[in-house]
Design brief:
Distance between the termini: 119 Å
Number of helices: 24
Shape: elongated
Structural class: mainly alpha
Strand content: under 5%
Mean pLDDT: 88
Low-confidence stretches: 42-46
Number of strands: 2
Strand order of the largest sheet: 1-2
Order of helices and strands: HEEHHHHHHHHHHHHHHHHHHHHHHH
């Protein structure tokens, strides 16, 4: 039978409430002590970060993000002790808490924002580590690579990962890991169902040139990719692999009728299989717009005599790369065109838009031509006063090769 409810006097009820409150207080104190002890234990047992001038490696990375000029020196001084912080910085990804913190900061009053720095975003920290990789020692860089590259590759393989193309085309490409570490995966990414991932894989693989040979089967398959830019990247890579990419020749020959990539396919075929007829038939189409076309035709030497008229036209172009490469090719194909070559190079030297790179190349070509380039002397003299050492050196050598007496008068060394 159910027991009848017993009436409690107010004093009894008050005593019961007090007992419950005391029990709850004891539980709260136990929980609080557990949190304190756990936190203290975590603080004591956590891996200790190296410190330089009172700041940890992570703190210096944060200061690098904020533009502190002393951060670079600090991270370099920390050396291999900074590796864990660098790895953690590159692996960090934005989460909901970070997004919340940024939103909260943006809604703070201006006077608070002036005193409380904005939260550092994961992407900012990632890019700071990539920036640091450029000036770290080879040993530190290698240690970071060994830890980060496998994790990055696993993240890119996961089709649910956000921004897979960015991780591949920016982060991994900027790290430029050794070919053995990435080539199998790059070959697989060229077959990925995501077009942007395929494009970034094709973009990255260019850097490996001949080392991309292990991915040759994937490269050949991707020549027919629906995206033009991806096809171009792949064709360039095949050309850079060179003769070892001979298996790609039939596929490249099929691209010669594709107006979007025919010039690049002709370049690749020349580099792989030395198809002179293809080069002479197609590359002249690009002479006026692409300096590489003239450069490659110049490698044919006198066998490319039929393209001389097109090259002469290209020497009159205002774009310096086209103009110089046309002159260089003419010199290799038909040295009798010296007057035209020297005249074009003289105009290049006088052009105020000419940068140091093309000035140096033009002077070097004039040095090869020698005394027959005496009309270029007035344009060479001002180069001796240029701030760039390479340009001054090239100009001095050209002057001595063309007219030793004139060079001695102006003190060319």
């Amino acid at each position: 039978m159910r027991q009848p409810l017993r009436f409690r006097w107010p004093e009894e009820r008050s005593e019961a409430i007090v007992l419950r409150v005391r029990a709850r207080k004891k539980i709260a104190i136990v929980i609080l002590l557990a949190i304190v002890v756990g936190g203290f234990g975590f603080f004591m047992l956590r891996p200790r970060e190296p410190v330089y001038k009172g700041r940890t490696a992570s703190a210096w990375l944060n200061r690098l993000v904020r533009g502190d000029s002393a951060a670079q020196d600090a991270i370099q001084k920390l050396g291999d002790e900074a590796v864990p912080a660098l790895v953690a910085g590159l692996k960090r990804r934005e989460d909901s808490w970070e997004r919340l913190g940024i939103r909260v900061w943006r809604h703070l009053p201006k006077y608070v924002q002036d005193r409380v720095p904005s939260p550092i975003r994961a992407e900012e920290l990632n890019l700071a580590v990539l920036q640091a990789m450029a000036w770290l020692s080879p040993e530190v860089k290698h240690a970071v690579m060994q830890a980060v590259v496998p994790a990055l590759l696993a993240e890119i393989r996961n089709i649910k990962s956000p921004r897979r193309d960015v991780l591949l085309g920016l982060y991994l490409k900027e790290l430029h890991p050794e070919a053995d570490l990435v080539m199998p995966d790059l070959g697989a990414f060229l077959r990925d169902r995501d077009g942007q991932v395929r494009e970034m894989a094709a973009f990255m693989i260019i850097d490996y040139r001949k080392q991309a040979k292990p991915a040759l089967a994937s490269l050949i398959e991707t020549v027919n990719d629906p995206d033009r830019q991806t096809r171009l990247f792949v064709i360039w890579t095949l050309g850079l692999i060179g003769a070892e990419a001979k298996a790609a020749v039939p596929m490249l020959e099929s691209c010669l009728e594709d107006k979007e990539v025919r010039i690049d396919a002709a370049f690749a075929l020349w580099r792989i299989d030395r198809q002179t007829n293809v080069a002479l038939r197609i590359l002249p189409e690009a002479i006026l717009s692409n300096g590489d076309a003239a450069y490659e035709l110049g490698k044919l030497g006198p066998a490319a005599m039929e393209v001389v008229p097109a090259l002469i036209n290209a020497t009159a172009q205002s774009e310096n790369n086209v103009r110089f490469c046309a002159c260089d090719a003419l010199w290799k194909i038909d040295p009798k065109q010296v007057p035209i070559i020297v005249g074009a190079l003289t105009e290049l030297l006088k052009d105020p838009r000419s940068g140091s790179y093309h000035l140096e190349l033009a002077a070097q070509l004039l040095e090869k031509i020698g005394p027959a380039a005496d009309n270029a002397l007035p344009a060479l003299f001002p180069l001796l006063k240029r701030p760039e050492t390479e340009v001054r050196t090239a100009a001095a050598k050209a002057l001595k090769a063309i007219d030793p007496g004139a060079a001695a008068k102006v003190g060319a060394k």
